[in-house]
Specification:
single chain; 3 helices; flat; about 40% helix; about 100 residues; two-stranded antiparallel ribbon; Histone, subunit A; mainly alpha
């Protein structure tokens, strides 16, 4: 094991977290499993592999910014179940 329960206690203290004894043991095992997996990944030969920020290649997915006419108040409230003037009327939620 790479970490001990005292290491987990120390990190919990730094994070100002209260950790029960059963949680300390659980977290110790979980963190050690993660660290062992990272060690296993570090054994791989990654020469020639370019760093990537996503599992799939993504290009700019943004649309072009165009100025268009807005919907307008009348059209916006036209299908509202309960409109009062240019506002949507909703049920009262605060007493």
């Amino acid at each position: 094991m790479k970490l001990s329960a005292s290491d987990v206690e120390y990190v919990a203290e730094l994070a100002r977290l209260e950790v029960a004894a059963s949680e300390k043991e659980k977290f110790t095992h979980q963190i050690n499993d993660i660290l062992l997996y990272i060690d296993k990944l570090n054994e791989l030969d990654t020469t020639g592999v370019l760093p990537m920020s996503s599992a799939i290649s993504v290009t700019n997915a943004f649309r072009e910014d165009k100025i268009v006419e807005s919907l307008g108040t009348q059209k916006a409230v036209a299908n509202a179940p309960d409109a009062r003037g240019e506002f949507f009327r909703v049920p009262k939620v605060i007493d």
